[in-house]
Structure formats: C-alpha cells, structure tokens
Amino acid sequence: MANAEKVAAVAELKERFETSGGAVLANYRGLTVAQLAELRRALNGHASFAVVKNTLTKIAATEAGVADQLGDLLTGPSAIAFVEGDVVEAAKGLRDFARANPALEIKGGIIDGKSMTPAEIGRLADLESRDVLLAMLAGAMKASMARAAATMAALPTQMARLAAALEAKRAEEAPAAEAPAAEAPAEAAAAADGTDDSNPNEDAAADVAAQATTEDATED
Q1: Is the model more confident about 216 or about 156?
Q2: Strand partners, 25
Q3: How far apart are CA 115 and CA 117, in angstroms?
Q4: 20-75 pLDDT per residue, tens
Q5: What is the pLDDT of residues 97-108, one digit of tens each?
Q6: How many helices (H) and strands (E) does the chain have?
Q7: What angle, rounded to 10 degrees, do the helices at 118-125 and 87-100 form?
Q8: Torsion over CA of 69, 74, 75 and 81, rounded to 10 degrees?
Q9: Sequence-separated (6 or more) residues with CB below 8 Å from residue 58
Q10: What is the DSSP string of 16-27?
Q11: Is 32 helix (H, G, I), strand (E, B) or coil?
C-alpha cells in the first residue's frame, strides 16, 4: 500500500472512530467472502463491517483518542463493526451471526466511549431495541394520560360532594348559634313597658317631693 493510501486509510478510520456510536472488534479468520457478505446484511444498516489492518488501525485509534480501549484487541486478523444505528440492534446482529457461525469471534469494543468486553456486548444484545423501548415508553405515557384524564373528570363530582357536606355541617351548627339571640326580644319588651326597676334612687326622690308638697299645703 502506497504511503498516500495509508494516510487516507488512517484518516478514514479516525473519522469513523469519532463519528460512530461504537466499534466492535472481531476475529474473522475462517469466514468466507460469502459469509462476510451475509454478516453485513445481518447488521441491517445498524453497523458497517470492515476488515482492517492492525497497524493502521492503531494509528487511527491513537489519533481518535481511543487507543487505550482498543489497542490490546488489535491482534490477529481483525475486522471492525462500526455502529451507525441502534447499538442494541448492532450487538444483536453480531451475536446472532456468531452463534450461527462460530468462526466469528467477538473480541470486545467500545460503545459510547466505554470499553466493552465480549460478555458485556452479549448482555447489551439481550436488551430491548430502541424502537421497542420507545413503544413501551409511549404506552406508559398513554396510560398515565388516561389516568390523569379520569382524575380530572372526577373532580367536579368530588367538589360537589364536598360543597354539599359543608352546607350540611353549617345547617347543623346554625340553631345552636341562634339560641342566645332569642332572649333579646323579652328584654326589649320589658324596657318598653317601663317595668325596669333598675333605678331605685329616682323613686325615692319622687316620694320626698310629694311629701314636701303636702306639708306646704297644710301650713297654708
């Protein structure tokens, strides 16, 4: 490979490391050209699978800042699945193909900047896909909205019941509050009849004045 071709290959690998959602390294020894083509179809656009040269890939990984995560995996015949779509679907495609074709050995990789062992990639493949998770989330949100709508619909009835209960409570408390006021008319009637004997001094003064008038008339 000419020097210019190597530079271009390194630049392309560096860009794919930087722009992809992850990179899974595999040993493809023993796979035929037809099987590699079948693997690419199995990935269904969620990842692209490319055979790489370890030396150039190490340079590209170093320039992309992922050499620490991938450097030890670049031994023997190497190929990389660069994740371009759903990470879970890409992991499922690799796992299922490896089960049917044991010649494909998953070495490990890096997903969203985190190193992944073959076992971790297998567990990732066991997760629900993004589309399934979104459908589950939409279903949960729809159920929550239905419960909220039912709660809002029940509020007027609950408010009416509360208002009726408050009115009944006020009606029960009203007679007890009005009882002392019933004595007021009796006191007012007594005052009108002049029967209030609360001022004895005025009566005594009237008696003294009457007695003085009688005495004056007798002297004349």
Answers
A1: 156
A2: 80, 108
A3: 7
A4: 999 999 999 999 999 999 999 999 889 999 999 999 999 999 999 999 888 889 99
A5: 999 999 999 999
A6: 9, 5
A7: 110
A8: 110
A9: 67, 71, 74
A10: HHHHSSEEEEEE
A11: coil
- Chain position carrying tokens 């990732």: 124
Write down the pTM of the prediction.
Answer: 0.57
Contact indicator for 86, 130 with CB cutoff of 8 Å: yes
Residue type for position 206: A
With contact defined as beta carbons under 8 Å apart, do 109 and 52 qualify? no
Token readout for 104 is 């494909």
